[in-house]
Amino acid sequence: MAIEQFFMNVVIILATARVLGEVFRKMKQAALVGELLAGMLLGPSLLGILSTDADLMILSNVAVFFVMLFAGLEMDLGEIRKAGKPAIVVSLMAFVIPFMAGSQIASFFGLSNIQSLFMGLLLSITAIPISAIVLAEFGILKSKIGNTVIAAAVINDIFSLVILAILLQLSPNGGQELNFAQIGISVSKIAIFLAEIALLAYIVSKTTHWLPQRMGSFLDKLQTREAVFGILIVLAITVSLIAEITELHFIVGTFFAGLIFSKLIGKKEADRAYGIVTGITFGFFAPLFFGFIGLEFEAQSMINSIPLFLALLAAAIVAKIGGGYVGAKMVKFSNNESIAIGALMNGRGMIELAIASIGYAAGILDLTLFSIAVAIGFVTTVLAPILARPYVNRIKSSYRRKSGRNLPDFNL
After folding, report:
1. How far apart are CA 55 and CA 74, in angstroms?
2. How far apart are CA 215 and CA 164, in angstroms?
3. Residue 281 carries which DSSP code?
4. What is the C-alpha to C-alpha distance for residues 220 and 268, in angstroms, rounded to an integer?
5. How far apart (Å, rounded) are the C-alpha atoms in residues 245 and 248?
6. Is 227 exposed, middle or buried (0-12, 13-18, 19+ CB in 10 A)?
7. CATH of range 76-277+301-403; options 2.102.10.10, 1.20.1530.20, 1.25.40.180, 2.60.120.10
8. How do residues 31-71 score in pLDDT, each as one tens digit?
């Protein structure tokens, strides 16, 4: 693609996404709904002005990198640890129930064993960037609900990537023979990565008094004002590459890099890096990210499989929200909080598309199943903030009535 055509495409999708995002904000909906619809409007299903290509997909990956980096910087490591047990329970329920429901429905419609398991996996995914942006827009990213959802989403997607490593060992024709040696190697790599992250997080938690002072003193001596941002990007890319090498998706590494970085340096320098990342993310990359998801939607390719699509879509929504609700109730959240958590876990977006693309490239999914996966990711991503909003508002109202003030993290 010529550079002028690339920039023209970026301008078209960015401008359309920002305009529709503002329209939906005026309608008291999350901006990302309008940004998603912008991609659908410009994509092959409607106007056909734009379509994804290699250059735009590279930019899309950069966009999700910055969204995840923002989410990691925004999170508090201590609060994530506090959310540990509830997050594990919520994540387990929100993974197992959709996985079983999706696999059974796909099998009922005559899909092979491997295809059924893969579709179940796609229904089980939670898109961390979707959840992070929705939570930030609702003003509850740092609340107990926000920490639980993000921590559960991280665990959920780690589950998904472990299952993906196993499913890729199955033959595309539906056979059940596993290469246990290769699976063992893959799982070992993942376990080592997570153990390293846990060790680093532990070290950081034990050095919160003197390490930030030392780092802050070092950074103050640097002449370039943006040096902290450059160091952050180098660190995030390095950890992301390590995650890829260990067969985790790179965004898991990006998230953990942001999460740990904010504790390594002083508050002044952390705030400076956070301000730069926030401006870049919300001003440029987030609208592009959701616009690219909309571009992936192609309704024409699944016309002959509408019953399968509707059945899987219903399972995706009901089982995911139901799984999140059951898990949240098990750890003593209220009814409104439990439904909100389930709804916030329902978005899929980029992660589902990435894994669907892997399945398509491996010959596990055909074009129809791939299109269905894209459609489910699109619809559930749009529905996540819409379904969650009334319950979040009820939680806010309930808190105001009981305490006479706003919950500190609520910005509405």
Report:
1. 29
2. 39
3. I
4. 10
5. 7
6. middle
7. 1.20.1530.20
8. 777 888 898 899 887 888 887 777 888 888 888 888 888 87
Q: Find the angle CA(80)-CA(82)-CA(87) to the nearest 5 degrees.
A: 70
- CA gap 309, 184 in Å, rounded: 34
What are 160-193's pLDDT values in tens digits? 877 887 787 665 544 445 566 766 777 787 778 8
In the block, residue with structure tokens 């509405």: 412
CA 146 to chain centroid, in Å, comes to 13
pTM for this prediction: 0.73
CA 35 – CA 281 distance, rounded (Å): 14
Structure tokens at 209: 């008094």
Measured distance CA(237)–CA(299) in Å, rounded: 35
Residues 6+ apart with CB under 8 A from 91: 151, 152, 153, 155, 156, 159, 327
Amino acid, res. 318 = V
The sign of the CA dihedral 68, 74, 78, 83 is negative
Give the CA distances from residue 363 to residues 63, 168, 214, 360, 366, in Å, rounded to whole numbers and listed in that order.
27, 10, 52, 5, 7
Closest CA to 357 of 341, 345, 370: 370
Residue type, 153: A
What CA–CA distance (Å, rounded) separates 174 from 234? Answer: 42
**In the numeric block, which tokens belong to residue 253?**
């590494």
Q: What is the CA radius of gyration of the chain?
A: 21
Task: Return the SS3 of 178.
Answer: coil
